[in-house]
């Protein structure tokens, strides 16, 4: 058992399935009291009933107060997991870009805005951001997703560097392919890039809890992402050329 989360009040957004459900189950198994959030009220209730948690359905941007009340007044851990895997390029509709920005970035900002005053006052709190390896690297065929996941990572990084001396713990989870509905919806690009090394949602939860025990910011359920991230930083042109070859392979197969 991870002592840091025993009897903690935990909120997991987008927890009706996939990574979110796996996180909710793991937190509950570790002795936490868990609020399960999802836009789909039925799915939220199903997971909450399974783990002995509390379902708080609705828009992840606007449930902090209700979740806090459901937990008896205190949120100790907030998992900003809800996300949207928007595909397309620069020509994607304005609405697609706006929705990706709102769900993948601004929902995190709004949650932090609501949670930080209490956390900073008592000198502790934990913010878990489900980002994606796309936030460290990129994803072919998905400009809105890639750009906004970069934003989600940047915000988690900013939170950590700004408030860690005041007791805030931040974790950024950056997996590649995970066997979820989002992977299925990613189509041929996902099949090419993500499916070959896809892991289960429970593997992501395992990686997070190992990171919590080791007090690490960056959580890499696919360890090889570290080498890709290093190559991107140290040899950007070589890395971009390699990614462009992947783009051409995808285009040729469509």
Automatic annotation (TrEMBL):
Q: Which EC numbers does the record give?
A: 1.-.-.-
- Keywords carried by this UniProt record: Oxidoreductase
The record ties this protein, via Pfam families, to:
adh_short
Question: Do you know which InterPro entries this protein is assigned to?
Answer: NAD(P)-bd_dom_sf, Sc_DH/Rdtase_CS, SDR_fam
User: Organism's domain of life?
Assistant: Bacteria
The molecular function terms in GO held by this entry are: oxidoreductase activity
User: Is Oxidoreductase a UniProt keyword of this protein?
Assistant: yes
Q: Which family does it belong to?
A: Belongs to the short-chain dehydrogenases/reductases (SDR) family.
Which PANTHER family does the record match to this protein? 5-KETO-D-GLUCONATE 5-REDUCTASE, ALCOHOL DEHYDROGENASE, PUTATIVE (AFU_ORTHOLOGUE AFUA_3G03445)-RELATED
Name recorded for this polypeptide? SDR family oxidoreductase
